[in-house]
Amino acid sequence: MSKEHGTLKVTIVEGRHLKDEDIVGKNDAYVEVYLDKDYKQRTKTIRNSNNPKWDEKFTFNLKRDHDDLHLHVYDDDTVGKDSIGSAKIDLRKHDFTKGAYDEWVKLPALLGLRSKGEIHVIIEHHT
């Protein structure tokens, strides 16, 4: 993928079993998605759900050094935002000539012992 350009169409479909360790109860979750930190896009906030359905599409222009798609899930709090978890998808590991990337991506806990939930992501590459 590193030499190709084109566009990446990313669909953040839904989340399941999202956990914020600090909060008892449900999350007000949203996802930040980006290839580099200078251009982040985000979903809308879904209130009171640990299994939110976003079904939102984002388009990114691919540059030569864009090898990873970053996902960061937050709980939207009245005083700011709490991180629920994050993950990165190595775009070089998927063969987009065989079709879209369509996976549940785990949000690993810091020590890797428990998952903080999963995000269903679909990625299409267009040259």
UniProtKB/TrEMBL annotation:
The keyword Phosphoprotein does not apply. Keywords: Calcium, Metal-binding. It holds the Pfam family C2. One of its GO terms (molecular function) is calcium ion binding. The keyword Metal-binding applies. GO terms for cellular component: membrane. Residues 1-105 form the C2 domain. This is C2 domain-containing protein.
